[in-house]
């Protein structure tokens, strides 16, 4: 009789743990992955930068430069039927060199104008800056942290080859999540036209990223994000 009682207690305890785990999964999905405003990024110590860097990003002259350019609107269909948006700017002088930009978490193609102005003015490159899936004008209900976008980047590369021909030389340049995206893209079978990859501040893995944030924000042990 006592044994049956403990079995029932154990079952109830496991059921409660399962419910907590499921509810927690939905909560953390909405917190970090679902496409929506992320309030937890406000007052986040990990995002603190120097006043000079913030001034450049918020009110630097590159904003005016972006506004004054006549970007072509490009669109591709992803492997899972999402409409993805890109913005192409042809160099002032004919060239076969193009940089493809990938922005960071919750960013958009426009943000990469902070680097695009230099590539355009100083290096004479064509520019293709894309809204990653789940961001900007591209479709997508969730943020994949680069894993699905790596295949989208391959499609953007192929779109460039269609327009510019087989002698095109391409640089992939990403920042933060975009940096992780271009590194993941490098693991795919890419054409020889991709000559270089610039990865500015990527994460080692999404597991490591989530482990760190779960510990910092919620004091949870690292194994929690590996479920």
From TrEMBL:
Which residue intervals define the domain AB hydrolase-1 in the entry?
98-225
Ordered alphabetically, the record's keywords are: Membrane, Transmembrane, Transmembrane helix
What SUPFAM superfamilies does the record tag this protein with?
alpha/beta-Hydrolases
Instruction: Extract the Pfam families matched here.
Output: Abhydrolase_1
| Transmembrane in keyword set | yes
Q: Where are the transmembrane segments?
A: 6-29
Question: Which top-level group of life is the source organism from?
Answer: Bacteria
Kindly provide the name given to this protein in its UniProt entry: AB hydrolase-1 domain-containing protein
Q: Which organism is it from?
A: Piscibacillus halophilus
């Amino acid at each position: 009789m006592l044994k049956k009682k403990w079995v029932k207690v154990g079952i109830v305890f496991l059921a409660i743990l399962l419910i907590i785990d499921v509810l927690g999964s939905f909560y953390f999905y909405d917190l970090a992955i679902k496409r929506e405003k992320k309030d937890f990024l406000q007052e986040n110590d990990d995002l603190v930068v120097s006043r000079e860097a913030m001034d450049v990003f918020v009110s630097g002259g590159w904003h005016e430069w972006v506004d004054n350019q006549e970007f072509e609107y490009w669109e591709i269909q992803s492997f899972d039927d999402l409409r993805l948006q890109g913005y192409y700017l042809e160099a002032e002088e004919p060239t076969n060199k193009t940089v493809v930009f990938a922005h960071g978490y919750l960013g958009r193609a426009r943000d990469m104008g902070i680097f695009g102005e230099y590539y355009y003015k100083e290096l004479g490159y064509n520019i293709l800056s894309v809204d990653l899936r789940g961001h900007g004008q591209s479709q997508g209900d969730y943020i994949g942290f680069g894993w699905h976008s790596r295949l989208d980047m391959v499609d953007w590369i192929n779109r460039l080859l269609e327009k510019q021909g087989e002698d095109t030389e391409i640089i992939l340049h990403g920042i933060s999540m975009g940096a992780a995206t271009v590194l993941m893209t490098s693991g795919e079978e890419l054409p020889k036209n991709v000559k270089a990859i610039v990865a500015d501040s990527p994460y080692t893995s999404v597991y490591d990223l989530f482990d760190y944030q779960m510990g910092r924000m919620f004091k949870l042990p690292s194994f929690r994000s590996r479920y």
